[in-house]
Design goal:
Length: 246
Amino acid sequence: MNEHLERLIALQRLDSARLAAERRLAEDPGRQKTFDARLEEARANVAAAKQRLADNQTARRAIEKDVAMHQGRLSKFREQAMAVKTNQEYHAVQHEIAFAETEIKGLEDKILELMIESDEFTAQVKGAEAELASDTKAIDAERRALATELSGLKESLEGLQRERAALIPGLDPGALATFERVAGRRNGVALAEARDGICTICHVRLRPQVFNTVLRNEQILQCDHCNRILYFVPVKAADAAPSPAP
């Protein structure tokens, strides 16, 4: 294989690995926002559950005040019933007593309903808090794993940069210039494997004479369609030298 073509293949592998690592690193802010959003949603669920419970307790206290007020009126009417002197006054007081008792019964039923709801809301609060605790623990673990991954990526990038710097001096300046130009236009992928007469990246069929020349890997040739530098991987070595990923 042409020495410079072989170096270009190695350079492409380094650059592809570097670009993949850089993309992964660039995704970090988005992943952190996702973590934050998950926690915020869990906290909002806890706050909403607590608010429902608080509203329930507020409504219950208000009704209990109404019950107390009607009980006070009921006591007063019962005292009046002991002091009435005419049937008309007696019936009037009895009417007020019955009304107060009816009101108290209705309010006590509402209090019972609110107590049942309160038990449900209390369970919801506990469930939301448990979910928040679980999410917090899981996200903390994910953040630690991500931090470890990012640290490894940064170290990998440093190593790739050192390898690239060591590889560049041995490259033909013209070949390197072609590589850099094509890579700049093709999302960092300047090389493409030619297989079965086709450029495996743009999938355009190569001219027969071009493909036959590429088979020998003795020259630096470019695809007529995508301009990527072409190379051929012999069948026996295909598994050991995969095409650079676009």
